[in-house]
Design brief:
Shape: globular
Strand order of the largest sheet: 2-1-3-10-4
Oligomer: single chain
Strand content: 15-25%
CATH superfamily of the largest domain: Periplasmic binding protein-like II
Structural class: alpha/beta
């Protein structure tokens, strides 16, 4: 009897020791997201479904509210990984940074904004925007550049054909549209759907559908971080790939239930509506590889906006090796 008790006790101690060792081996990653958006649903799924934990990663998530602030966090070691528009890596490289920001995993593959009007526009045509007051986004940011690109594709010059307002901080744009005189605005989800439900605006077009494939939001880290700890970056990418596949295989309602903790002021029904919009236009990338044609489309959009500082090659700022190995395995 005592012998069996002793064996059982040793087994329990072994399990406790194994668990302690396992928890002690977890790697903490400081992750900075450029904003909080349903657009990033796969990232929240990766956290909530424990895909990061399965890869031995503990995520410390922070929302940095803007591309410039997000890149500052990454470059100053306030973050290990940044979820932000790929254009920021081009800006950093053009400034002569010796430690480049490298795109290693794509999360979204279209623009995530929708054109919202104050009044209903059942027969909307892009030319209807001419001579209107348009509340724009930050100069040099992806929402604004894609917005300008789409408008130009529809024979509208944002600078001469619109009363373009661009002096409002990103986080304050929804409130400024609600209380101001602007007739049109670009909004992400779930804000766009919330405005529509509350009668404060009407979704009349999708910039994502109009602009085509583009690496709108990617995970990036400093080149030195990859050189020093490529295995951690690979484990991070594995977790994201698992989440991307999970999102592809589950309904908008199921995804909404999982990511609800990140949007406490939004109902699951509204989240599901927003997610369905993004799924319908293939905004969520199904795998983390950032393709070259998307990168070239990004540079075209930046060039059209007059914001491409330098034609930096795809191979210089994009690492596909890690994502390809993850998918292959």
């Amino acid at each position: 009897m005592l012998k069996r008790f002793g064996i059982a006790l040793l087994c329990c101690l072994f399990l406790l020791f194994t668990a302690a060792c396992s928890s002690g081996s977890s790697t903490s990653i400081k992750l900075a997201e450029v904003t909080r958006s349903v657009f990033y649903a796969p990232q929240y799924v990766a956290i909530e479904e424990d895909f990061f934990e399965e890869e031995g990663i503990n995520i410390e998530l922070q929302t940095t509210w803007g591309g410039d602030k997000t890149m500052t966090a990454l470059l100053s070691d306030g973050a290990d990984v940044a979820l932000v528009g790929s254009e920021t890596s081009i800006y950093v490289a053009a400034q002569g940074s010796k430690d480049k920001a490298i795109n290693f995993a794509q999360l979204t593959q279209t623009d995530g904004t929708f054109l919202v009007a104050k009044e209903p526009k059942p027969d909307f045509k892009w030319e209807d925007i001419k001579n209107s007051t348009f509340l724009g986004q930050r100069v040099g940011g992806m929402p604004q550049m894609v917005g300008e690109y789409v408008l130009k594709q529809n024979s509208i010059d944002p600078q001469t054909d619109l009363n373009l307002i661009q002096n409002v901080d990103f986080a304050n744009i929804p409130g400024a549209f609600s209380s101001g005189d602007a007739e049109y605005v670009q909004l992400f989800e779930p804000t766009a759907s919330t405005f529509e439900k509350e009668g404060e605006g009407h979704i009349i077009a999708s910039f994502g559908e109009e602009s085509g494939s583009v690496p709108y939001t990617t995970f990036m880290t400093k080149e030195s971080f990859i050189n020093e700890d490529e295995e951690t970056v690979k484990s991070f990418t594995k977790a994201i790939y698992k989440a991307q596949q999970w999102v592809q295989e589950h309904s908008a309602e199921e995804i909404a239930d999982v990511i609800q903790p990140y949007f406490e002021d939004t109902s699951t029904e509204m989240l599901a509506t927003s997610i369905e919009r993004y799924k319908n236009q293939d905004s969520f990338a199904s795998e983390p590889v950032l393709a070259k044609d998307g990168w070239n489309n990004l540079k075209t959009i930046m060039d059209e906006a007059g914001e491409l500082p330098e034609d930096i090659p795809y191979e210089e700022l994009v690492n596909t090796k890690i994502a390809e190995e993850v998918i292959g395995n």
